[in-house]
Write a structure and sequence with these properties.
Chain A: Keywords: Nucleus. Chain A: One of its GO terms (biological process) is floral meristem determinacy. The complex is a heterodimer of chains A (about 600) and B (about 850). Chain A is mainly alpha-helical. Chain A folds into four domains: about 40 residues, no CATH class; about 200 residues, no CATH class; about 80 residues, no CATH class; about 190 residues, no CATH class. Chain A has 27 helices and two strands. The longest helix of chain A has about 45 residues. Among the domains of chain B are: about 190 residues, Alpha Horseshoe (Leucine-rich Repeat Variant), CATH 1.25.10; about 210 residues. The N terminus and C terminus of chain B are likely disordered. In chain B, helix 8 runs parallel beside helix 10. The chains are: A mainly alpha (about 600), B mainly alpha (about 850).
């Protein structure tokens, strides 16, 4: 911006008339104030960028070596965008009013004039009126944020009042797409290829600057606006005409960058709208845009995971939306996922071999855990449609390694999360993943001071490690047992109708019985007792069905179809018990949130 | 000589003044004066020479005598008396000066008497010195020096005075130099002393054996560094000096006999060496108890025991080393353990005697500390080696013992006597078998005593080792079975509750071949009780949980039992069912991360895979339990269980009924019609009545190797062509599939991806919902926003007003422009 200012000054000195010089003397006083404000905004942006860039580099260099290659690609994107910014951005030419432009030095938009133009554009698709309207739209979008360089000093646009301002923006955002399509003779369901063919259309040559001006102004509005609903409305309308961006790749990249930023930092509605734009871009345009969207979102997601937040409620949304984007093109996402999971496996292997504090801390960092969470959800979402067996195998090994890296009660939350992941993968893929040994090991977490009844509030701790004080509390042990029962319940629910359920449940039931004999807390005893009874009743249930069967373990298909009717029927006793446990778990989660 | 000196001395005083007067007065008598002067000079020269020689000789004698007297004073007191004689010599030096200064006759006479006495003493000393000390070369040097000094004295008398004055500051300088020695210099001096003494001993030990005492005295120094250096130096010296044989002191009779000089020297040398060595060892043992010298003392003791295990006082060394076998200091403990391992593995140096003593001492040590030692203390036994020959007579004894059962005599003495008789009989048999060759007889005669002694020593070693092992087993049982009343008295030691149990069981497994049949029954009973310790202690409180044996420890007991039976080729009819029962139950109690999976895999291999005779019921029970085990544990454990399961099914064809679901399986299952998953006895579980349904779930395992193995096992019955023996053992399977070793990369990557987009419709539904509301809200907010921007316009207007009147015409022009714009619009509308 500073560079442009200098050029503008030189241009002004050379080309201005004496009378216009006087008017310039008056204007700088007003502009200086706004210039200072702009500088402040820019400085703030620079500081934020510096802060953001540093942790990204550290993360990329340290843990994900292959992704660092993508970082170089990202830099190239930034350079391209910067080049795009340096293009000259001026008002459109008004051919009809050339004679008037010499006389008129300042144009003010009035209500009546606006109404006339709107009617002409809306009903008759009169191109000159559209040109004027887009110029006023540009002025409205940049109102209060005019750039210092003006290409046409003889024209100055101003807006009469607030109502006119609002009408201009709303009308253009609502009607622009329809108008463009009607002029070009396109339908609403036109595809990218048709738009690319527009280059052969003679009308496109005259209409292209208008479309470009519209998009540029809209992007500027999205950048500068601070209001929630204005941005949301703008993004919603921008989605409708996103196909036209095929002709403007620079603007497309700029939009991707802005959308990723809003997706990560915005609130719920803005984040959703931004994600929808990114999704449309990845669906409509070619594979390069998909790659850039995926890479930018992935980096932003990991960067966001590094920052500790009080409210981490939005993170699941970010993760789910990223998974949804990856699911659009599983072929390409598979490549990215395999690279990332391989990196996770290497880090884990180092930690298992050396047991260094640094290596273990990397494994226990929020970034590593959230990355595993991301890929677990991705594989769970797509494992039935596609063949993701290698990814599934590797990620399960990684999760087992993380759970067994350090055995101790302080890492209870991490272990519970790992087992949740394994249960999730098993449920969605239909593959058997044993978790009993991991779960039952938590029964061995013995607390010293059993008599103490410290009712410390178990707030939702997002950290991986628990403080030492909590290990002595009674609530901790209760949480251990409830987690064990919940996890086993989920595991058994998946296989409760499988022919080998009695054998699967033998060892866990035996361990729980011993625990039941050993423990002295009545509440825990009651819960464990009920769980054991339910499992045993289901064992008898399956046993009776199994005795009537005529096939042998060789016959895999008939084994799979075993008890299908009972499975669909939701009145099975264990299913009801499982639902009650899940409801209790949800209830406890709600209480925790409150 | 004395008389001549008296006459000469009387003459000079009267002659000197008149000669001078004559010279000054008469010039014509110059010739006469010259002659007289010459005669006087000749007389003076003779006098001066004798005095100078006497003085010079006296000084040299003093210097030499001082040196030798210093040395002799350490040895003899007589030399001190001679030192007293020197004092008489000192005033002699002073006398001639005074005589020259003083002119009184009386003083000169009194001094003359003293001079006479001194002269006599000097003469005697010269004679002694010449005989003993001075050599020809030294004599010549003295003669030259005397001549030089004579030339000097020819010049003038005052030169003598100057020389005398020079001597006194030298003495002062020496005194000052001595005072300047600081502690550091004394430290270095002591270091040098240690080095010199060491070098002397190493160069010629027989001649310099007495210096050992000097080095031992240095050990009493207060500086710890010097003490350490002295100890290490003595260690190096003793290493080299000590001969390759054991020193035997002479008896009283031998002392009375006449001995040659050479024998006297060697005896003196040996007795002195032994005394010094003994005192050195005593000091080491004392220093060992002090924390400052603990490590160095132990290092010296261990090094000596390794270097000279054959020498005298080795018992004391061994006692000290064994005492520190379970020292809390890790460095000391490692030193001692490695030393004892060295002794066990290098019996050639000491003939095996130290092995017996060491094992005995360790056994006593374990007994004294009530089995609460560091595990390293007993791992040492693994280095002991026994000859293969020991087994043969033992086996013969075993056969004979079977016959002895009728007699029922079990006293040790009788057994020893009977063994001797048996040995004689065996020898006779050997003689009878061999053709009566002379060479065979000679060989037998020459080697018999060595073989006998060696067997005795090794049998004693074995008995001590097994005594220790059985004590540990008994102690373990006792601690587990303690009553609640004795809880506070028995606390686990610093090394854990049962630190010696694991090395004890490992040792038993190694030495099973040397174990007697009589002890096997006891051993098996102990192992049974230990392995089944959980059932008997089930009612105890939580506080006792630390005393219970872990799963891996109980698995070790089962392992040892099977190894014992394996090595004896199942000679005994011992019931091993209890161990199978324990293994059957321990499989359920296994916990990865806390218990060792390697031991589980090893026990599966030895007890199930390598077992020859198995009951069908038992095999089926284990097959079923291993399948259940594979469903609940990680890759490594599951894989080892499946490998074992496959091996069992391959060996027992009838057990393959588990792979099929036959309605009429009642006849095969036997008495029990239903499978009891929680049964504790494998024979009563009724496993044949069930089917291996676990395999259908395991075939869906996420690990491809496990799913493949499960599929192979389930198809074993139908496709018999695949029944080849698997080369993989449970141990290898466990090692290969553990998380640390296994690679995380999948081997076969198949990228056949089928894109199915089914979720496109869902997000579209969410689009329409917020639009309606947003339109209204956005309008309202934009109006507010524009209001804010109106404020900005007002600011602009203010700026314009503030500047000057010049703005007014610009405004007018703007108004004109606006008016003109309106006009064309109206025309267009028309």
């Amino acid at each position: 911006m500073g560079k442009l200012g200098k050029k503008a000054r030189k241009f002004a000195k050379k080309n201005l008339q004496s009378v216009e010089k006087r008017s310039r003397k008056l204007k700088p006083f007003i502009k200086k104030k706004f210039a200072k404000r702009n500088e402040r905004h820019q400085a703030g942006d620079k500081q934020e960028k510096k802060v953001e860039q540093q942790p990204k580099k550290r993360c990329q260099e340290e843990e994900f070596q292959d992704i660092a290659i993508d970082a170089v690609f990202g830099k190239d994107d930034d350079e391209v965008l910067r080049d795009g910014d340096s293009d000259s951005d001026g008002y459109l030419d008004e051919l009809v009013n050339e004679t008037d432009s010499d006389i008129m030095k300042c144009k003010v938009l009035s209500r009546s004039f606006l109404a006339t133009c709107c009617d002409m554009v809306d009903k008759e698709q009169y191109v000159p009126a559209l040109v004027r309207l887009l110029n006023w739209y540009r002025a409205a979008c940049q109102y209060g944020h005019e750039p210092s360089g003006i290409a046409r000093p003889n024209i100055y646009y101003d807006i009469e009042d607030s109502e006119t301002f609002a009408k201009v923006i709303i009308f253009v955002l609502q009607k622009a797409d329809h108008t463009f399509r009607s002029i070009l003779g396109l339908s609403d369901s036109s595809t990218k290829e048709k738009i690319l063919k527009l280059k052969n259309n003679p009308k496109w040559d005259s209409l292209k600057p208008l479309v470009k001006s519209f998009f540029r102004s809209t992007l500027h509005l999205v950048k500068q606006a601070g209001d929630l609903e204005i941005i949301s409305f703008t993004l919603t309308q921008l989605r409708v005409s996103i196909v036209f961006l095929a002709a403007f790749p620079d603007l497309l990249k700029k939009l991707i960058k802005i959308s990723v930023h809003l997706w990560v930092t915005g609130e719920e509605t803005i984040s959703q709208q931004a994600f929808l734009i990114l999704k449309d871009i990845s669906m409509v345009f070619n594979s390069e845009c998909f790659d850039s969207c995926l890479i930018n979102m992935y980096k932003a997601f990991l960067h966001d995971c590094d920052i500790p937040k009080a409210n981490s409620e939005q993170r699941p949304f970010l993760r789910d939306s990223l998974v949804e984007l990856c699911s659009q093109d599983v072929q390409k996402s598979y490549t990215k996922a395999s690279v990332s999971i391989t990196q996770l496996a290497k880090l884990l292997k180092m930690a298992l071999a050396t047991k260094n504090k640094e290596a273990v801390e990397k494994i226990h960092s929020g970034e590593y855990i959230n990355c595993v969470d991301l890929w677990v959800n991705f594989i769970s979402a797509n494992v039935q449609d596609c063949d993701l067996q290698p990814l599934l195998y590797t990620i399960v090994q990684v999760i087992n390694g993380v759970a067994q890296l350090i055995i101790g009660p302080r890492y209870l939350l991490l272990r519970v999360k790992c087992i949740h992941w394994l249960n999730h993968l098993s449920r969605t893929s239909g593959i058997f993943i044993p978790i009993a040994s991991l779960v039952l090991d938590m029964l061995e977490y013995k607390t010293t001071n059993d008599g103490e009844k410290q009712e410390q509030k178990l707030e939702a701790v997002s950290t991986v490690k628990l403080p030492k004080n909590w290990l002595k509390s009674q609530n901790f042990q209760e949480q251990c047992i409830f987690s064990v029962i919940e996890l086993l319940a989920v595991h058994f629910a998946q296989w409760s109708f499988h022919i080998s359920f009695p054998d699967l449940a033998t060892i866990p039931v035996m361990r729980l019985k011993k625990f039941h004999e050993r423990s002295t807390m009545e509440g825990l005893k009651r819960v464990v007792k009920r769980f054991i009874e339910q499992v045993e009743s289901n064992i008898e249930f399956v046993q009776r069905k199994r005795d009537d069967v005529t096939f042998s373990p060789n016959d895999q298909q008939s084994a799979d179809t075993f008890m299908q009717l009972e499975k669909q029927n939701a009145n099975a006793p264990y299913t009801q018990y499982y639902q009650s446990i899940i409801d209790k778990a949800l209830g406890t989660n709600k209480k925790k949130k409150k | 000589m004395g008389k001549n000196r008296r006459k000469q001395k009387v003459i000079p005083p009267p002659l000197l003044p008149p000669d001078v007067a004559e010279e000054d007065i008469e010039f014509s008598d110059e010739d006469l004066k010259y002659v007289k002067e010459n005669t006087d000079y000749a007389q003076f020269v003779s006098q001066i020479d004798t005095a100078a020689i006497n003085k010079q000789c006296g000084g040299r004698v003093m210097t030499v005598e001082d040196k030798y007297e210093e040395e002799r004073s350490k040895r003899k007191t007589l030399q001190e008396e001679k030192g007293n004689g020197e004092i008489l010599v000192d005033p002699v030096d002073v006398l001639p000066v005074k005589t020259l200064d003083g002119k009184l006759h009386y003083r000169t006479e009194s001094k003359k008497s003293k001079l006479a006495e001194a002269e006599t003493d000097e003469a005697e000393k010269d004679v002694l010195e010449d005989e003993h000390v001075l050599n020809k070369s030294q004599r010549r040097e003295k003669a030259k020096k005397s001549k030089r000094e004579a030339k000097k004295h020819e010049k003038d008398l005052p030169d003598e005075i100057l020389q005398e004055e020079e001597e006194t500051p030298q003495a002062a300088v020496l005194a000052e130099v001595k005072e300047e020695l600081s502690a550091e210099e004394s430290f270095e001096n002591k270091k040098n002393k240690i080095a010199e003494l060491g070098m002397l001993l190493l160069s010629d030990p027989e001649a310099n054996i007495k210096t050992l005492k000097d080095m031992l005295d240095i050990c009493k120094d207060q500086n710890t560094k010097i003490v350490k250096l002295a100890l290490l130096s003595l260690l190096a010296v003793f290493k080299d000096i000590i001969p390759g044989y054991r020193i035997r002191l002479p008896t009283e009779k031998e002392l009375e006999m006449k001995i040659s000089k050479e024998v006297k020297k060697t005896r003196f040398y040996e007795s002195t060496l032994l005394k010094a060595y003994k005192s050195y060892l005593q000091k080491l043992i004392i220093f060992e108890k002090q924390s400052v010298y603990n490590q160095i003392a132990n290092r010296c003791l261990c090094t000596l025991l390794e270097a000279v295990p054959h020498f005298n006082y080795r018992d004391n060394l061994l006692i000290a080393v064994v005492r520190n076998i379970s020292s809390p200091d890790e460095v000391v403990r490692r030193l001692c353990c490695s030393t004892i391992r060295y002794l066990f593995s290098n019996e050639g140096k000491h003939g095996g005697e130290l092995t017996v003593q060491a094992v005995r001492l360790i056994a006593d040590h374990v007994k004294a500390h009530n089995c609460q030692l560091h595990p390293n203390a007993i791992e040492v036994f693994m280095s002991i080696r026994f000859d293969e020959d020991i087994g043969k007579p033992n086996k013969e004894d075993e056969h004979n013992k079977k016959y002895k059962k009728n007699n029922k005599r079990k006293t040790q003495e009788e057994q020893n006597q009977v063994q001797e008789n048996e040995r004689k009989k065996s020898k006779k048999d050997m003689m009878s078998k061999i053709r009566d060759e002379v060479s065979a007889d000679h060989r037998g005669v020459t080697y018999e005593p060595d073989a006998k002694e060696r067997r005795k020593m090794q049998t004693e070693t074995l008995s001590a080792v097994f005594e220790t092992y059985f004590r540990i087993l008994r102690n373990t049982m006792y601690t587990i079975g303690e009553r609640t009343e004795e809880i506070p008295t028995s606390n686990p030691g610093a090394f854990g509750s049962h630190p010696l149990l694991a090395p004890c069981l490992d040792g038993l497994a190694k030495f099973t071949q040397q174990l007697d049949l009589d002890y096997m029954g006891d051993l098996m009973n102990y192992l049974k009780k230990l392995a089944s310790s959980s059932s008997s202690v089930s009612n105890n409180t939580k506080q006792k949980n630390s005393k219970l044996l872990t799963v891996s420890e109980r698995l070790r007991c089962c392992l040892v039992a099977f190894k014992v039976m394996r090595s004896n080729l199942n000679a005994l009819n011992v019931d091993l069912q209890d161990f199978f029962v324990q293994l059957y139950n321990l499989i359920l109690e296994y916990r990865p991360g806390r218990d060792s999976g390697v031991i589980l895999a090893e026990s599966l291999k030895i007890m199930l895979c390598d077992d020859r005779h198995q009951d069908m019921q038992k095999a089926a029970a284990f097959v079923k339990r291993l399948a259940t085990f594979a469903l609940c544990f990680g890759c490594a454990e599951s894989m080892s269980a499946l490998v074992t399961l496959k091996t069992l099914l391959q060996k027992n064809v009838k057990c393959r009924n588990l792979l099929e679901n036959d309605a009429g399986g009642g006849s095969v299952s036997g008495s029990i019609a239903k499978y009891q998953p929680y049964a504790t006895d494998p024979n009563l579980s009724g496993a044949l009545a069930t089917v291996l349904w676990e395999l259908s779930l395991l075939s869906k395992h996420y690990h491809p190797a496990i799913s493949t193995m499960a599929t192979t096992v389930s198809n074993m019955n139908t496709s018999q062509s695949q029944t080849f023996l698997s080369a993989v053992t449970p141990q290898q399977a466990f090692a290969d599939f553990s998380l640390v070793k296994e690679s995380f990369e999948p081997k076969n990557e198949s990228r056949k991806l089928n894109n199915k987009r089914k979720r496109e419709s869902l997000p579209e539904e969410a689009k329409n919902v917020p639009e309606i509301d947003m339109v209204k809200l956005s309008k309202k907010l934009k109006e507010n926003f524009t209001i804010l921007r109106d404020i900005k316009e007002d600011e602009r207007v203010r700026m314009e007003l503030l500047q000057s009147e010049e703005k007014k015409p610009l405004k007018k022009q703007n108004n004109v422009v606006k008016k003109k714009l309106k006009n064309p619009k109206s025309k267009k509308q028309i």
